[in-house]
Amino acid sequence: MVLVTLLIAGVLIGTEAAIFPMALVATFGVARAMGAGPLRIILTVLVPEARGPLILGLTFVLVAPIDVSAVADTVGGGVGAWR
Q: Alpha-carbon distance 76 to 46, whole Å?
């Protein structure tokens, strides 16, 4: 959890470092208090919370090869160089 907090907040000490773990524990705690089991927490809490970052990462993964190919074609390489 310390490494994740460092990557997200950028610090290990202070209120900035405390917000992420507290929010995560509070979210799971609320779901658990309402009677949700582990699978239900994953499907109704984790997946919706992670949907935005997953879509963003997928967008980067799909756009990066096109971008690299366009840059390579601009400098004289790329897909067109094989013809």
A: 45
> Closest Cα to residue 30, out of 16, 49, 14?
49
**Distance from C-alpha of 12 to C-alpha of 35, rounded to nearest angstrom:** 32
Residue spans per domain, the chain: 1-35
* Exposed/middle/buried for residue 27 (C-beta within 10 Å: 0-12, 13-18, 19+): middle
pLDDT in tens, 16-50: 666 666 677 777 788 888 898 989 988 888 888 88
Among 83, 58, 79, 81, which Cα is nearest to 69's? 79
Token pair for 11: 């610090």
Residue 76 is given by DSSP the state T
> Which residue blocks in 34-81 are alpha helix, DSSP H?
38-41, 47-74
